[in-house]
Write a structure and sequence with these properties.
Strand content: under 5%
Radius of gyration: 25 Å
Oligomer: single chain
Largest sheet: none
Structural class: mainly alpha
Number of domains: 1
């Protein structure tokens, strides 16, 4: 017989896993956006056909583009996590479901002890 105490635990596992996948996806999106913009800049401004090396200024510009987009993406992740974590702690029913013991039956009475 499975106890009903496991529901908040499973909710926490699913939510925690979702946050990890969201964080990974947001990080990859931020870095790949910066890389895409850098490649577009290189295609438009640097002649790859010649044997001449790229200038230091162009190289610094490419690095600045990558850094700019990666930092924007990471800042969005920081804001989301910064404001989401306190909400979870304030909204107690998210991780500690308050279900009347009478509705849970015998397993619920065991959980409430």
């Amino acid at each position: 017989m499975t106890s009903t105490c496991i529901a908040p635990f499973l909710l926490g596992l699913v939510t925690g896993g979702a946050v990890i996948y969201w964080f990974t996806g947001a990080s990859i999106q931020a870095v790949s956006t910066g890389a895409y913009r850098a490649v577009e800049f290189i295609k438009q401004n640097i002649k790859l056909e010649s044997s001449e090396r790229a200038s230091v200024a162009d190289s610094k510009k490419v690095v600045a583009i990558c850094t700019q987009y990666a930092q924007k993406g990471m800042f969005n992740i920081f804001l989301t996590v910064f404001f989401l974590v306190p909400v979870v702690f304030v909204w107690r029913s998210f991780y500690a479901m308050r279900i009347p013991v009478e509705k849970l039956g015998r397993a619920g009475r065991e959980c409430s002890r």
